[in-house]
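>> Question from a student workshop board

For tomorrow's exercise we were told to take the sequence and the ligand below, predict the bound structure, and bring the output to class. My setup keeps failing. Could a helper post the expected result so I can at least see what it should look like? The ligand is glyoxylic acid.
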Amino acid sequence: MSDSKHNILVTEPIPEEVLSYLKGFGNVTVGEAGEYQHVDQLIADIPKFDALLCMLSNPVNEQVLKAGSKLKVVANFAVGYNNIDVEAAQKLSIKVANTPDVLTEACGDFAMGLLLATTRHFYAAEKYLRDGKFNGWEPMGFLGPELRGRTLGIVGMGRIGQAFARRAKAFGMEIIYHNRSSIEPELEKELEASYFDDLEAMVQKADVLSLNCPLTPQTHHLVDERLLNLMPKHAVLINISRGPVVDEAALAKALHNRTIYAAGLDVFEEEPKVHPELLSAPNCTMLPHIASATFETREAIGMLAAKAIVQVLQGESEQNIPNLVSVS
Ligand code: GLV
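>> Workshop helper replied:
Here is what the output should look like for this input. Compare the format with yours to find the bug.
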C-alpha cells in the first residue's frame, strides 16, 4: 500500500460503482463476504487503515476503534448503527456516518410485502406447490386475514415507519403509532395516524404490530413475553428493525402457543443464527435481513457511506457532512 494515498477498508463486496468512486481517493481493500463478522479479524487488520466502510454485521466496538491508530472515519453501510460504539469513537475523535433516507422507500415496500407474505401464507403455499401437493383449487386452503380495515401499530414513526404507514394506508389500514414524541401535526393528518404515548395501550389495539425503531438499550427486548401477552390473539408482529428488539425465545413460545397469530421477521437476535424454536414455529415468515436489498438502494447506501469517508479524509467540516452521527 502506498503511503501517499489514504487506505480504505471495505469489509464486504459492495456495488462496483461505489468501489470505483472510492478508488479515486485511496487504496481500497475489499474483504470477503463474512470475513469481518468477528471482532478479532477487525482488530488484526484495522491498524493499516484510515477509513472503514463497514457492514451492520461487523462489530466495531471500542477495542476495534482503539486498534485503529490511523482511523479517522467509520461509515456504516446501513442506517442503523448499533454495531458501532459511537461514544468510544467520539472519544477517539473518529467520525461515524450512517446512511439515512436512501433506503426508506425500499424498506417501506419490503415491510408491506412481508406483511402480505405473512398474512397470506406465501411461503407455506409456495412450498406446498413445489412439494407437488397442489391438487386443485381449494376453497379452504391457506386462508388468512385481510388487511383492509385492520389497525397497524407502528413502534418508531421515523422515516421507515412513515413509509410503511403510507403504504398500509393505501391498503385500507388504520394507523396508530408509538414514538418518543408525536410527529408533526400535518404528517399525522396526512397519515390519519393516532399517537399513543403508552406502548402497552397501543399494542392492545394493534392487529399488526410493526417494529421500526432503532436498537438502543431502551428498545432491547421491547417485545418480551409480557408485551406478547398483551397483543390480541389474532395479531401479527412484523420486525424489520433489529432482531434484539424482540425476545426471540418469548416470540417463538408465543407462536407455538398461539398467543399471537403470526410473525414476519427480516432480522434476528444473533444473526446469522436463527432461534431453533422460531424455525419450527407456525405462521412465521423469515427472511435473511434483505429489507433494503434493491439494486438502486444498495448503490445509494454505498455512495452515501463512501462520500462521508471522502469528505472526512479531505478535511471537510462536520456541518457539511449531513450523515455523521454522534451521541449527545
Ligand atoms: C439495515 O438494516 C439498515 O439499518 O440499513
